[in-house]
Amino acid sequence: MLFVDLLLIGAFLIYSHYRKKWDKENREEFLKELGGMKETMQEMQKEFQNLQKQVEALTKELQQQRGEFQKFQQELINILQEFKQQVAILGEERMLSNEVVVDRKTSQDLDEEFNKSLKGKNETNPAPGDGGEALIEDIPPQRYRGRSGSFYGLGDKKQQELQENKKVIPINLKKRDSLTKTKNAPRKKRM
């Protein structure tokens, strides 16, 4: 019994001794870890301060660039306004120059120019079917020639003379239309 008590007392003493030693080691390690954490916190604070300084420098640069951009934008607006004014002035000058040219020309001058432009053109060429007059050179052969190839009511000699002299000949186009109508009339069926 005494032996068991002695063993228990010895085991308790050994446990308490090693417990104190373990607690000391753990405390030292914990303090070391705390010191390391303090160092890391200080390093992080330094890095944060450096980042804050960089951000401040960037904001200053951005403000400077913004001011320069606003100046450039204002210069562009001024240039555009000057350009619009110059375009308006040029348009007014052009309108004035056109008005001067129009004022110089009278109605008689305009009539003379119109008559000159009409010279050399055939003014007597009518639309087909209205019974007017037409030049021989203006008549298409496939429309106004007969079966013999000559014009209606004219001989070959007369036709050649008119072609050589290029005179105006009267042609009754309504007669031709009536011929085409009778020619193309539907046939009656035989019983």
Short overview:
Residues 112-191 are annotated as: Disordered. With 191 residues, the chain is mainly alpha-helical.
General form:
elongated
Count helical runs.
5
Low-confidence stretches: 139-145
Mean pLDDT: 70
Q: Helix-strand pattern, N to C?
A: HHEHHEH
Helix share, percent: over 70%
Distance between the termini: 159 Å
Total beta strand runs: 2
What is the rounded Rg? 59 Å
Largest sheet: 2 strands, antiparallel
Q: Given the helix and strand composition, which structural class is it?
A: mainly alpha
Q: What strand line-up does the widest sheet have?
A: 1-2
Strand content: under 5%
Biased composition (Basic and acidic residues): 112-122, 155-167
Region (Disordered): 112-191
Keywords: Coiled coil
Coiled coil: 27-82
